[in-house]
Amino acid sequence: xxxxxxxxxxxxxxxxxxxxxxxxxxxxxxxxxxxxxxxxxxxxxxxxxxxxxxxxxxxxxxxxxxxxxxxxxxxxxxxxxxxxxxxxxxxxxxxxxxxxxxxxxxxxxxxxxxxxxxxxxxxxxxxxxxxxxxxxxxxxxxxxxxxxxxxxxxxxxxxxxxxxxxxxxxxxxxxxxxxxxxxxxxxxxxxxxxxxxxxxxxxxxxxxxxxxxxxxxxxxxxxxxxxxxxxxxxxxxxxxxxxxxxxxxxxxxxxxxxxxxxxxxxxxxxxxxxxxxxxxxxxxxxxxxxxxxxxxxxxxxxxxxxxxxxxxxxxxxxxxxxxxxxxxxxxxxxxxxxxxxxxxxxxxxxxxxxxxxxxxxxxxxxxxxxxxxxxxxxxxxxxxxxxxxxxxxxxxxxxxxxxxxxxxxxxxxxxxxxxxxxxxxxxxxxxxxxxxxxxxxxxxxxxxxxxxxxxxxxxxxxxxxxxxxxxxxxxxxxxxxxxxxxxxxxxxxxxxxxxxxxxxxxxxxxxxxxxxxxxxxxxxxxxxxxxxxxxxxxxxxxxxxxxxxxxxxxxxxxxxxxxxxxxxxxxxxxxxxxxxxxxxxxxxxxxxxxxxxxxxxxxxxxxxxxxxxxxxxxxxxxxxxxxxxxxxxxxxxxxxxxxxxxxxxxxxxxxxxxxxxxxxxxxxxxxxxxxxxxxxxxxxxxxxxxxxxxxxxxxxxxxxxxxxxxxxxxxxxxxxxxxxxxxxxxxxxxxxxxxxxxxxxxxxxxxxxxxxxxxxxxxxxxxxxxx
Length: 771
Ligand SMILES: Cc1cc2nc3c(=O)[nH]c(=O)nc-3n(C[C@H](O)[C@H](O)[C@H](O)COP(=O)(O)OP(=O)(O)OC[C@H]3O[C@@H](n4cnc5c(N)ncnc54)[C@H](O)[C@@H]3O)c2cc1C
Ligand SMILES: *[C@@H]1O[C@H](CO)[C@@H](O)[C@H](O)[C@H]1NC(C)=O
Ligand SMILES: *[C@@H]1O[C@H](CO)[C@@H](O)[C@H](O)[C@H]1NC(C)=O
Ligand SMILES: *[C@@H]1O[C@H](CO)[C@@H](O)[C@H](O)[C@H]1NC(C)=O
Ligand SMILES: *[C@@H]1O[C@H](CO)[C@@H](O)[C@H](O)[C@H]1NC(C)=O
Ligand SMILES: *[C@@H]1O[C@H](CO)[C@@H](O)[C@H](O)[C@H]1NC(C)=O
Ligand SMILES: *[C@@H]1O[C@H](CO)[C@@H](O)[C@H](O)[C@H]1NC(C)=O
Ligand SMILES: *[C@@H]1O[C@H](CO)[C@@H](O)[C@H](O)[C@H]1NC(C)=O
Ligand SMILES: *[C@@H]1O[C@H](CO)[C@@H](O)[C@H](O)[C@H]1NC(C)=O
Ligand SMILES: *[C@@H]1O[C@H](CO)[C@@H](O)[C@H](O)[C@H]1NC(C)=O
Ligand SMILES: *[C@@H]1O[C@H](CO)[C@@H](O)[C@H](O)[C@H]1NC(C)=O
Ligand SMILES: *[C@@H]1O[C@H](CO)[C@@H](O)[C@H](O)[C@H]1NC(C)=O
Ligand SMILES: *[C@@H]1O[C@H](CO)[C@@H](O)[C@H](O)[C@H]1NC(C)=O
Prior knowledge:
By secondary structure, the chain is α+β, with helices and mostly antiparallel strands. Helix content is about 15%, strand content about 25%.
């Protein structure tokens, strides 16, 4: 036995801030694990637990996975986060199979094989040409002699370890092995990583398929008769209350159509009945979703119920959709954003009346604090010093939407009176005042119900109406506004989209039987054509900057008391604004002759820092550089066997000229640093070139959450929806959300999405009813 373990805490080289576990779905089996991919060795570690006990001890098992490039000879973990007095589990590939071992060390010598855990390798484990993957059930694994883990913990810190040196005898689980060559820790809310017993038991037995479906099919011994209430038919059913859905619902109800808006999530802002509050806001009616300064805490709060748990990228599943959890950066669209060169049909290019209508209902502001003052402006001043010598001009960005070359200005938002405003505070309120409008929350639409091309209504999970069915009036229409991932999934589940996706639906025990016969499937490129802004963070320090403690405490315990008191008293001060302080744009030439635009967003604080040097964290700030209009890279999104939404082909920097352009933009920003006295770039630092930094950038962190295009508008044969946003080969099914947008606009997209919805509502109303 030669396992020597590192016991001391190594100096923290690399990331200053550890990774945090997030949920992901294994496409091979639909298991929704929580875990991380260690970005140095590219090893994924994931775990999912059975339900917490309602009384007595918790179950002592979990399902785990390790997915590793072959270059790592073995990998292991300790869920307790400690290498001594802990259950250690390690695994490696041998002859196409996974060999694993359980070990235990009481000191820094020779840990023995530890009997007790009962490990079953599950069928979706494999070794392929590049990777090995181990999926396993670990029973009797959450406690051991001298220790245990708390599976309800919201703040566990497990450890991983990796080695580039093979074990001595790979065929022998009891082999000797030398100490791992690297290890690390991460944050993990074990308490979140539980699924229902029926789902867990299915996976633990080697079954596949998703949590959502298995949960709903769990057997209950109920004697209640099925509901016989039939829902009232309406003219329009709108699915999803994001920016697209709310604006469409308001305009259609304004035209006296009967409108039912179905939203799977619950309330958000205080005005809508939301109650989720930071402790320092108790006693007010201000929720997490109301307070602009809490934006950064959306990503660090362990109780993050607002994200769609069945989509692997960030998507808001609550009233207001992404609009209730986003940074609310709000840019009025430019003419070019709706040009034919941007992929819009000619009929869409006259956007100005609709953009004006939007502006009238929801004016942008770049000074959201109710006292009109600007706070925490140091980053604005420093970045302006960087930009001015490079020929940038200071403008009020939304006063000149078409001017996007070498300009900068204050970040603009759709906050109102120092609170989150957006469509929820405006359009939704006028709709709610109408008798012909109804909003229904907590209702998940599974699919549209159709007879060939004619949609008759939608199938929901609502158990209070017969068959969960919501019908349309004769001549009625369904409008999907469930977002880029959500609307695509509803189409797949309705038998509309590429055959590979519909086949996954067919394999699902709940969704499969609800599909129309395959003779009625409609083959459209749903999920293709997606884009998202590739974004790369540069991190700096400057002596004048206040990083606001990296926003770490704003939710709990709270911002500095004076800032909290000021915000509660008058919705003014630092908390009345999200983190960004300055935005800039520049046109960039490229080797392929296509102009691309670079957007910069500057904010106090940083999400991660990679440097060997000491730096003053209270002075740090970030410039996120995005590539926007003009990018050519496209990806594909879809669903997996569990029917969870996920990217299938990443859309970032696939096109070489996209990549070289973004690198040129980053180099230009970095090149200006020397012009600003006291400014230092700490990520990448001066030991790393911009090229190397971009090449090693974790692709998933290039995600800007600006997904568009999965139900692209365009010509028959190439697109999903036609010029009126109607799904091809249907009579009365429409999509109005970010998914129809053909190319990314200049800026963060929800301003464009809202103008688009204004125009879509007008086009739909103008379209004669054909049945
Ligand atoms: C973290 C984050 C930050 C962002 N920051 C910005 C920013 O600062 N500025 C900006 O312009 N854009 C930003 N965006 C993007 C912006 O929020 C989206 O482009 C916008 O919300 C898209 O609107 P939508 O109507 O297409 O869909 P969504 O906002 O995604 O809304 C879809 C709605 O449909 C509901 N739904 C989904 N499926 C179903 C179903 N089956 N049944 C019933 N309801 C369903 C969802 O719960 C949700 O409410 C951000 C996005 C994220 C995630
Ligand atoms: C991890 O992935 C990156 C990017 O794909 C690659 O450059 C790197 O070589 C990989 N590292 C290992 C250990 O496989
Ligand atoms: C569980 O593991 C412990 C050692 O941690 C061992 O003593 C016990 O026998 C095991 N129980 C079962 C049921 O395998
Ligand atoms: C090998 O397995 C890895 C990890 O699951 C996967 O990403 C990769 O696509 C697989 N390669 C092939 C050729 O299937
Ligand atoms: C809607 O109905 C109201 C009341 O019947 C009427 O005053 C109004 O003109 C109608 N609006 C439209 C657009 O038809
Ligand atoms: C929220 O509280 C403020 C101050 O108490 C009050 O003016 C406002 O009407 C309340 N809003 C709602 C929606 O209850
Ligand atoms: C930018 O312009 C605004 C007015 O539009 C002005 O208040 C501000 O001081 C200017 N900032 C700089 C750095 O020039
Ligand atoms: C329907 O789904 C929503 C969102 O997933 C959930 O909140 C609601 O409880 C579900 N309704 C039923 C009856 O299961
Ligand atoms: C489906 O539509 C066809 C005509 O397109 C009609 O003949 C048939 O009766 C419809 N079926 C149902 C169940 O409504
Ligand atoms: C830090 O130092 C190591 C060893 O000298 C080097 O390989 C690495 O590139 C440096 N830079 C960063 C950002 O870690
Ligand atoms: C870090 O920066 C802050 C603010 O500029 C300053 O007060 C503090 O002294 C600095 N700390 C160190 C260790 O330099
Ligand atoms: C790199 O940066 C560090 C700290 O920011 C500084 O101490 C060092 O002198 C720099 N090295 C070079 C070659 O510029
Ligand atoms: C969307 O993607 C499909 C499949 O790649 C392609 O055939 C089609 O032309 C694209 N449509 C548009 C409008 O770009």
